[in-house]
Write a structure and sequence with these properties.
- With 366 residues, the chain is an alpha/beta fold.
- The chain folds into two domains: 69 residues, Arc Repressor Mutant, subunit A; 251 residues, Rossmann fold.
- It is built from twelve helices and 14 strands.
- The strands form three sheets. Strands 4-5-14-13-6-9-11-10-12 form a nine-stranded mixed sheet.
- Helix 1 crosses helix 6 and helix 6 crosses helix 7.
- The radius of gyration is 21 Å and the shape is globular.
- The protein starts with a helix and ends with a helix.
- Belongs to the N(4)/N(6)-methyltransferase family.
- Pfam families: N6_N4_Mtase (PF01555).
- Keywords: Methyltransferase, Transferase.
């Protein structure tokens, strides 16, 4: 059944708003097809051409952007903040960096982005510092030790979820533009938000390919009722989370898998060995105290796990792995450990300084 013209229009405009930069007709087709199914190319070209000057402007042959987006183009510094072995880290906003990146110039994305947007607002951080909780769950203790606060995503509002969806839709659109066809996109999330992340990034033009389950004991869930833990000491409000989902997406293939592998070096996952395929369940210990001492980042993942994911994301072991939310540089350290080229982008100068020290030290762990 053909999509209604209004749906095609809304899908095109929604994608272009999320992208924030110009896009080719092919990119627009890929993005809206993930939402609407097959759409006649003539319908897309017709809508674009009829609305040039009013809604869109043509930036080059077959390339368009929304009117006014030219004013929002940001200049991104091209000088790396950190370089070590095959890893390069830029101090920049990742949305600006991705928008400025040449189309189809990266081969995989492995990243652990902000799980949400509201928990780091000044309002919620003030509550956290005062020990009042709010979005943050401030537990009393665990085995006699004070536990670190964790965001409580169960109390997010509809507006919070809408903003989160918009954030990841825009992120997906920018990644879909920068990555080559067949390139893997692997994004850490959590059981409560993975559906939002997956659907939003799919709307940005990426194909959902499943998820990787990191099996590990977390400190999320399992808590007694807030401010009544002694009264209801036999109650867990939610199950203790013992796994962490990493959403797996990719830019649509160009032709068959074998064609894509020959041209772009992407389109699958690298096997750990000839007899064992890459799997979607990876057992993982919590991040060790030694690694946390090297890189005291709030969401640091262990090198043993990161190296498996990073190695697996390039099927032929060739190409550039990008972490747009680089944090302390654990993805880049893992890429160095498996001899891959990598690029990281980090907006927070505190974490850029941390990564400068942590990347070589984490990468040298054996």
């Amino acid at each position: 059944m053909a999509a209604a013209p209004g749906k095609i229009r809304d899908s095109i405009i929604g994608y272009m708003e999320a992208c924030g930069s110009d896009a080719s007709i092919k990119q627009i087709m890929e993005a809206i097809s993930t939402q609407l199914g097959p759409v006649p190319p003539s319908s897309v070209r017709s809508y674009l051409n009829l609305n040039v000057g009013r809604v869109f402007e043509r930036t080059a042959r077959g390339r368009y952007r929304l009117v006014g987006d030219a004013e929002n183009v940001h200049r991104v510094g091209l000088e790396p903040a950190v370089e070590h072995e095959k890893a390069v880290l830029f101090h920049a906003d990742c949305f600006d960096w991705l928008a400025a990146r040449e189309e189809a110039s990266i081969h995989a994305v492995v990243t652990d982005p902000p799980y949400g947007l509201t928990e780091y607002s000044e309002k919620e951080l003030t509550k956290l510092r005062a020990g009042q909780g709010g979005v943050w769950r401030v537990p009393p203790s665990f085995d006699g030790h004070r536990r670190s606060p964790l965001p409580r995503f169960t109390i997010m509002t509809d507006q919070d979820r809408k903003e989160l969806h918009g954030f990841f839709r825009r992120f997906g659109a920018l990644v879909a533009r920068a990555i080559v066809p067949g390139g893997n996109v692997i994004v850490a999330t959590n059981p409560l938000l993975q559906h939002i992340v997956a659907s939003a990034m799919s709307e940005g033009g990426l194909e959902l390919r499943g998820s990787i389950a990191r099996l590990t004991m977390t400190m999320r869930g399992g808590d007694r009722p807030k401010n009544a833990h002694e009264e209801f000491d036999e109650v867990s409000v939610m199950p203790r989370s013992q796994w962490e989902p990493w959403v797996v997406l990719r830019r649509p293939l160009e032709g068959r898998v074998q064609d894509n592998l020959r041209k772009w070096k992407t389109g699958g996952f690298r096997r750990p060995s000839e007899d064992r395929p890459f799997g979607d369940v990876i057992r993982s210990s919590p991040t060790s105290a030694a690694e946390r001492a090297i890189a005291p980042h709030p969401s640091l993942k262990p090198q043993e796990f990161m190296r498996q994911v990073v190695r697996g994301c390039l099927p032929l072991g060739e190409g550039i792995v990008v972490d747009p939310f680089a944090g302390s540089g654990s993805t880049l350290a893992a890429a160095n450990a498996v001899s891959y080229e990598s690029i990281g982008v980090e907006a927070d100068p505190k974490f850029v300084r941390l990564a400068a020290d942590a990347i070589p030290r984490l990468g040298s762990l054996r």
